[in-house]
Structure formats: C-alpha cells, structure tokens
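Sync notes, pocket subgroup
Present: LS, DG
LS reminded everyone that the earlier model was apo-only. Rerun requested with fe (ii) ion included. Inputs:
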Amino acid sequence: EETEDQVCKAGDETCAPQEAVVDVDSSVNVNSIEIDNGDDDDDSYYEDGDDDDDHYEEEEEEEDSDCVDTHNLCAFWAKEGECQNNPGYMLKSCRKSCNTCNVKVPAGLGSGYGEPQKIEGKEATNLWPRLAKMDKYMSEEVIKPEYDKVRAECKNRNELCLFWAHIGECENNPNFMLINCAPACETCKNIDFNYRCPVDPDEKDVFGPGDLHKMFERIVDEYGDNVTILSKPPTEEGAEFTPWAITVDNFISDEECESLIELGGFLGYERSTDVGKMKFDGTHEAKKSSTRTSENAWCTDECFSHELTQKTLGKIEKLTGVPDANSEYLQLLKYEKGQFYRVHHDYIENDDGRPQGPRILTAFLYLNDVEKGGGTNFPDLDLTVMPKKGRLLLWPSVLNEDPSKKDFTTRHQALDVEEGRKYGANAWLHLRNFKKPHETGCT
Ligand SMILES: O=C(O)CCC(=O)C(=O)O
Ligand SMILES: [Fe+2]
C-alpha cells in the first residue's frame, strides 16, 4: 500500500482520472466544481477602485456541496504537501483535505498578507491556484532583503483582491490595484513611492537659478499699467531679503471669472482639506482642518477643457512662461462669510525629489468682488491684497537662487470673509511636469 501511494502522484491521470469519484459519500465529481452555487451570473458587483462602495453582496451561508475529496488518496497527498506543490489539481479535487472549504482563506494560504480572500462563486476553482501562486510569491520572493522596505505594507487591502486580479484588474486599474492588492498582483515593490514614481531624468526643471527674478522683471515690463509691485527683492547690498509679489488687474475677463464660478458649482464645492500625513504608499492624506474652512472643487475634465478655462490657463502660461503641463488643475475656492484659511505655506516639503518637483509659484485668481474682508495676507511682508474680480496675485514659493528650496517668507493666509462671499482659484505651478505623473497617481 505504501509503495502504491508514492507512485501515484496527485493529478496523475493514471490514478486520478477526471471522472474518478472514490470513497466519497456524494455524487459530486470534479466537473461539478466548475458550477459553484452559481446563482448570480453577473460579476459586475465585484467592483474595486477609489470608491469605497463595496457592492459585494453577502451570500447566504450555505452548505458547500463541493467541499469534498474526489480521490481516496487526497488526505495522503495533502499530508505530503501536494496542496501547495500541485495546487492546480489538488485545490480542485481534494478540497476537503486541503482545507479549502471555508469561505475565508485558511492560514498560510494568503491570510497572512492582509485581508483573507473571499473565494467563492463560479470563479472559485480558478482562484485556488492563484492563491497558491500568490503564497509562493510572498514566501519565496518577498522574503528577499530587497523587499525589506515594503514587506510590512504589502497586503491585500480588500477580500476581493485575488478575484479582481483574476479578472484582469491589475492591468486595467493599476493605480488602485498595484498598491491595494499588491500580493495578488505580485507588485510589492510598487508600494515604494520612489520605485513606482521615479523622477524622469529627461524631464527638465522649468526654472534654474536666477530665472524667478527674470520672470518677474519681464512681467513688470510687459504688463505695464495693470501690474502692481507689492514686494520685490532689495537692490542694495545687505538689505533684508523680501520676495517678489505682484498683482495684475483685469488679468481675466468677467466672463472667465463667472464661468469658473459656475463650473465650480457644477462640479460641487466641498470642504477644503490640507495636505496631511504621508500614507503607506507615499501619498498624503487629505486632512480636514480647523484652520481651513473654505470649500473647493478641482477644475478637471469638462471644467479643464472648457473654452474659457483654457483661455485663462493660456494667460497664466503666457504670463509666467511655465507650461500648463506643470500646473495643477485649478483649485476653485468658495468662502462663505466667516470662512478663512489660516497662515500656511503652499510649498509641499516632499514634492522636492518627486516627479513634479515642488510648487514654485502660486497664481491666485480673485473671481469676484467681496463686500468686506477676505483679503490675502502675508504676515512676514506686512502685506494684504484685497479681492477684486479678474485680479491675479502672483508670488513664489521658492528661492531665486535655488528654485527647489522653500522661500519661508511667502507664508500667507486668507482672512475671514466678513460680508458677502469670496470666490477664487489657485493655480499651483511646479518645477516640472505635473499632469503626466498625476495621471498615474504619482503626485
Ligand atoms: O484665498 C486666498 O486668498 C488664498 C488661498 C490660499 O492661500 C490657498 O488656498 O492656498
Ligand atoms: Fe495658500
């Protein structure tokens, strides 16, 4: 008997023919496993992505009729490690002995890497071998030292990761999947922001040393009477440093202002957030903060492509010489009476060394006249700019000598709106292309 067991390997057609049903107390055979409580033909409720909306419907806990061994050597093979070594056959045909009967993944087969995976429905039999493959990846590849940085965070963050991977989501929805289902997609390295989002060596900085001052001087020349210099660097030796800050009145038309306000309303203004803590994947949390009470909308998609928006963006591009590709999408702002944004800096520390580089300039647009209050105040410059429809306020976040370094003197605040409402828009211009890395979740 002993010798017979050893020759007869699991999956060997000669001893485990497909129709073999040996020593089990039901009429189930291998083929029936393909149709596992297939009461729902529609897989569309398995959704992943940015929305938290989990459409997975809990199925009734029911007796799993396929939870059987279909060969009398199943228990023996399982003891020999065949569930791991030969999952293609074993996880289909020896489910009882391989302990794959529970809806949840048994320990050692994936539950160590985040959420235990839900394996059921008509795709279940295809998922078992996938699970074994993932297990192998995690236990043989990810244990290598080169994964030290990412191992702890390489987890399936949803119980449907394996299923999604199976239906091709690692390829079709990579921004979400490669990070949130990294074991299932076998992409643990992608957890590391710098691995996932390397700085493109061909991407040039738009400003080198000295270019910032040159830009402001050119604007003053070209825009003439509409420009007001609010602050500029001293020319005398030894004088205390002051940065550039200018306004350009009538920078955009009433029509452009009204269009942006309307588009913001159409997109829906939502409570503004601050850049919060860094998350496991190197991106930042959006933090609701008591020091910023305005609402905003991001001018993407139809708002971005709107003719009048494009006209505005073209003007900013022409003014600064910074291509629109380097700009974040306009952030449309709405302040009700009593709302504000307390002192802060627009420079985001971690952006230096990232594909888009730091924010170098803020081009702020005032979209309406405010009855009272709502000025933009620079405490270090003893300067307050009042809102005026069509007015642009431009200031740097970085230093002329090194446009990757923060200029601390341009911290600022949006003072309380005291009467009426304030509408505005931020254009944050980066040292390098912003829109390209933004598409792949790399900003
Ligand atoms: O509303 C303002 O005047 C300035 C807003 C601002 O500084 C910001 O949104 O970063
Ligand atoms: Fe700001």
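DG: The chain has two domains: 2-196, 211-439.
LS: The CA atoms of residues 229 and 246 lie 5 Å apart.
Action: DG to write up.
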